[in-house]
Amino acid sequence: MIHISTRKDGIETKKKILTVCVQLFLEQGYKQTTISQIVKKAGVARGSFQNLFSTKDAILMELVGTMFSGQFGVAKNIVGDNMSPIYTYAVETAIQITLTELNENLREIYIEAYTMPETAEYIYVHTTAELKQIFGSNFPGYTESDFYEMEIGTSGIMRNYMARKCDIHFPLYHKLRRFLTAAMRVYKVPEEEQAKVLAFIRSLDIRAIATEVMYKLFAMLEMTFDFKLSKDDEMGETR
Q1: How far apart are CA 16 and CA 165, in angstroms?
Q2: CA distance 143 to 149
C-alpha cells in the first residue's frame, strides 16, 4: 500500500506542477517563467520538482505531447471515417497554427517547441509515421526516413507561419491557405484535391475548434483558467 500511495502522490504532484506551468506560461510567457516561481506557486519542494522534471524544458516536452494528442483527436473527430486522411492532416495543422493566434504566450510555447532540439525531434518523430500513412501512396518506395526528412522542412514552414502574427492584411484563413498549399504541394496532393481541402478548412470555425483544444487541456488538468484570447480585430478575418 505504501508503494501505491507514493505513486499516487507523485501523480498528483506532477499534475499540480503541470497545472501551475500552464497558468504561468499563458500569463507571463514560457521564457519569463522560472523554476522558483513554479515550485512556489505549486507549493512543492524543489527536490520533488526535480524528481519529476529535470528541467523546465522537460515540462514543455510533457505539454507538447499532451497538446499534440488532443489536437489530433479533435481533428479525427471533425473529419470522421468517410473522408481522406489528408483532411485530418489539414485540420490538425490548421488547429496548431490557430492556437498560436489565441494568446501571444501560447504562440511562444509553440515556437519554442518547434525550436528546441528535444521537442522539435519529438514533433518530427511523432508526425513521420502519420505522414507516411497519409501520403505514402504518392511516394512509392519512400521509407519513414524520407518522410522524416520532409517533415523537417514542412515543420520549418509551420514554425515561420506561427511566428508571424495575423493582422488585417494577413488574416488567419490567408495564413492557413498559404501553409496548407505549400505543405500539400510538398506531399504531391493533386491541385483539385487541394482546392477541396482548403474549402473544407474555410467552412470550419477553426478558432472555436482551437479554443476547444485548449479547454480540453484545462479540463484534463482540472483547472479553471480563463486565459486572454486575442480580440477579433487582432485576428483579422477568420472565415
Answers
A1: 31
A2: 10
